[in-house]
Amino acid sequence: MRILLLLFIVVPIVEMWLLITVGQQIGALPTIGLVLLTAFIGVSLLRYQGAAALLKARTKMSSGELPAREIADGLFFAVGGALLLTPGFVTDVIGFACLTPGIRTVLIGSFAKNIFASKFSASQFGQGQAQYSQTSHQSEHMEFTQQSKTSSDHATIIDGDFERHKE
């Protein structure tokens, strides 16, 4: 939470300083033109890549797959687009990084690694077998068997079977 507060204070100050410095070097109108050009290029990239990601997501959903990568891409497209529309050069660099496929892949990987490493640990899943049953209001009995295995590299793999029994 403190890092966000710090970012909301530091980034605008750095942006103003950079805009003033660039404006002194090339003039006010070219600086404004450069800011508008980066916004236009960013919106064009966002529109093109967003449409491609939406098409991939629809294709995956129609084949019964979860479009997790496309959802992550969409999140980074939204952040990148918002940063590109914000006047300034630092936010433009970060926004273009969110829209550049190779850099975005690295960012998504590190973001997902940090989120999942902090939220889920192997110790939460436990070892051995556990059996769960649940009865719904439609009087259907569902049984779930969970088996937890540890592979050679000490990663926990969860293997499960699902059966639905009508009573």
Structure description:
- This protein is α+β, with helices and mostly antiparallel strands and 167 residues long.
- The protein has a domain of 106 residues.
- Helices cover 67% and strands 18% of the residues.
- It has a 3-stranded antiparallel beta sheet, with no helix packed on it.
- The longest helix is centred in the first third of the chain and has 35 residues.
- The protein is elongated and about 75 Å long.
- About 18% of the residues have low confidence.
Short description:
By secondary structure, this protein is of the alpha+beta class.
| Secondary structure: number of strands | 3
Task: Count the DSSP helices.
Answer: 6
Describe the largest sheet: 3 strands, antiparallel
- Tell me what portion of residues adopts beta-strand conformation: 15-25%
Strand order of the largest sheet: 1-2-3
Low-pLDDT parts are: 122-151
* Element-level helix/strand string: HHHHHHEEE
Whole-number radius of gyration?
A: 24 Å
State the helical fraction: 55-70%
How far is the first residue's CA from the last residue's CA?
A: 51 Å
Average pLDDT for all residues: 78
Shape: elongated
The SS-based structural class is: alpha+beta
Q: Layout of helices and strands, plus pairs?
A:
Layout lengths: L1 H25 L1 H35 L5 H18 L3 H11 L1 H19 L2 H4 L2 E8 L4 E11 L5 E11 L1
Antiparallel strand pairs: 1-2, 2-3
